[in-house]
């Protein structure tokens, strides 16, 4: 019952959740960038769901041991989470996967920094699914043979080239055969579960891995040019990202009791340089990847972030980023991604835990389109394309080392995350506190056999990696909530003890005097109790007293700490206000820079709000990051 973790009272640094970003405007506002989307988001969902009924199922699945099985729910689970976990079972049933197997959420008070563990520190495996693309025109024209078989139960059988050698068998959570549609991938890959968890405050990542031309970009964003052309979001060709956006907004609409703030960013790692796809600038100046001591993770400094109030804003972010990313042609793919891209949507949820307490969770969904591994002989890469291929292969190799180390439970030593920008940014998704879905993309043909086997091995290794998903919550909120639970638990316990005591007393008194006793023992009745019961009674009272006294002392400590914390925050606030005033006065004096007319409320949430200057000049210019 001890109230621990007073370190949570450390004043919250905004870097923990959002760090300041450069408030440079996009070329156009999200809404202006977006195409006029005629239908509503719900219609897309309705359309795709309607279509689902008619289609035969192309996705096969294997329920891996332990995956997708709901464990017992703790009575201490967050109310909102309890609801979500309950729903999970249902959604798991539908999506037949165990993307980060469903777990009960109990609040573990071993809270780290700004986060609260919600699964009691249980580990979770990366969910791995495989998608096989159909034969392309070139392969059909050259009469290429398919060498993969799908016997079901999430298995892929690879025929080998060597006569007499046994075929290789791999198994995964779900296998999408070549005829599987984009909607099948949304429904059965487990990405819906990831989105539900992102809304609850978990950090989630879906990434596509595979050789060049195997269908990674197709899986995430559809055929080349689809998004950039501003195609209606109801096109059946749209990939996982657009479909996920629609589902995300649907989830948000289902929760009117919560207030949500969505912020999106989109970057690429091109030749080991991080480029902001929403604000690349003519020079495509690279951004720095830094380590945050507070959140204990890497983040990109000055990354541009866009507030997305509407579904259209998310589409606009995707469209803008897709236009700006590096694409090139080589012998194996006319529209090959020459960079790794990372699209991130942060989901801040404010919910009322009860009448007096509002707490915020900070979830995230990342979509990572890795550039494909390339055999430069096969792709005929030269010059710039060759340099790109070398950088791609190098960073994928580091990713491979990290995956190999992480999957080897026994030998787990140093994980070389720092060896590439990609692994730095994926570190948390791979083995930190995130929930991760890997979509391994492969080609079905004999000519790609060695790359296919490599990808399948990679995927099998990734399946063994475990992470510890946690909900990101403001430290103060987490503490208040945990204190409240603590007090509730104490009260229940005391109530229970009192009840137990009365029952026993009633029974004894009845046997003595044969008359009804009052619920509370009257002082004069105490004399009638036998010595042994009296001793028990006194002992129980003493125990209760001790517990309540401890609680009392701890609550006083907590209150003092809160006061100190508040004092620090208000001092920081004053300092910032002073700084703002100084900046303002400099701006007013300057003939070149116009002064900002107003700054947003300097209260606690101000630091997390970025408003697009192009849409509202009167708003604040404080930015954030990841
Ligand atoms: N499941 C699929 N159904 C139909 N076409 C597909 C499928 N998967 C891939 N394709 C097509 O194959 C081509 C190559 O796919 P894509 O560009 O997505 O590969 P990639 O793995 O992203 O390659 P790279 O690593 O070079 O970027 C594209 O024209 C794409 O539309």
From TrEMBL:
Keywords (alphabetical) are: ATP-binding, Coiled coil, Cytoplasm, Cytoskeleton, Microtubule, Motor protein, Nucleotide-binding
Where in the cell does this protein reside?
A: Cytoplasm, Cytoskeleton
Q: List the Pfam families hit by this protein, alphabetically.
A: Kinesin
Give the matching SUPFAM superfamilies: P-loop containing nucleoside triphosphate hydrolases
Indicate whether Lyase appears among the record's keywords.
no
Q: Which SMART domains match?
A: KISc
Return the protein name.
Kinesin-like protein
